Amino acid sequence: MSSASPPPFSRSLLLFALLYGGMTCVAGVLGAKQVALGPLAVEGGIFPFLLLVVLSSTTAELHGRRAAEMLVRFGFVPLLTAMALIWLVIRLPYDPAMYPPAITAFPVILGQSARMMMAGVIAYGVSQSLNVLLFTKLSQRAGTGAGRGLGMRGAVASALSQIVDTVLFISLSFLGERSIGALMAGQMLAKVLLSLLLVPPLIHLLAAIGRRIDGVSKA
Predict the structure, then answer these.
(1) What's the rounded Cα separation, in Å, for the pair 205 and 82?
(2) Which listed site, 104, 108, 157, 210, has its alpha carbon 20 to 30 Å from 219?
(3) What is the pTM of this model?
């Protein structure tokens, strides 16, 4: 019998992991709606996707790059599981007593082509991994002070990774089927602006919550 003690338990890491897994599932569902933000149009999935970025960056800030990279890798599990379950449920026969408009709407809202599904998986993996890498590199340049430039580091890493996410997803989903230049430019602009506006306060909030529930004071 091994006498090795179990690894230390982090409440904040557990909380972030639970939220992260949930957001990977919700992002695809909310992406079915196009949201108008003034003159800009963006898919609704950007909001849970920004939370994914904030969660991975906050994890890197509090628990290190390795923990954040594991969070991204394990995120494939709920993402692929949700996609498989949606595929299965869409193909199961519906109850004749089901609300008629819902019978038509359900596969339209939740169904995606295989090309778009694969594009989403690839864009998720690349952009989230890039976000962790950029955030970590910016943290190393910022120095060792806890929270130094946290909001700016998170916003810059998010904006750059969102640009890559947009290029990958739109190119892999629509290249050869429609013109993608204007669509890509509009999505990039909206995601960069949202990253700059929302990521700084969110990452400060999550970092403060994480430190509090772990009983760690800010240096």
Answers:
(1) 28
(2) 157
(3) 0.87
Residue type at position 119: A
Tokens of residue 19, six digits: 């939220």
What sections of the chain are H helices per DSSP? 11-30, 46-63, 65-74, 76-91, 100-110, 114-142, 150-174, 181-214
Tell me the per-residue pLDDT of 84-141, one tens digit each, with 9 for 90 and over: 998 899 899 989 889 888 888 888 878 877 788 888 899 999 999 999 999 999 998 8
Q: How far apart are CA 198 and CA 151, in angstroms?
A: 10
What digits encode the pLDDT tens for the residues 157-188? Answer: 999 999 999 999 889 888 888 788 887 888 88
User: Which DSSP letter does residue 43 get?
Assistant: E
Measure the N-to-C terminal CA separation of the chain; round to a whole number of Å: 40
CA distance 189 to 159: 9
Q: With b meaning 16 or more CB within 10 Å and e meaning fewer, what string describes 91-101?
A: eeeeeeeeeee
One-letter amino acid at 53 equals V
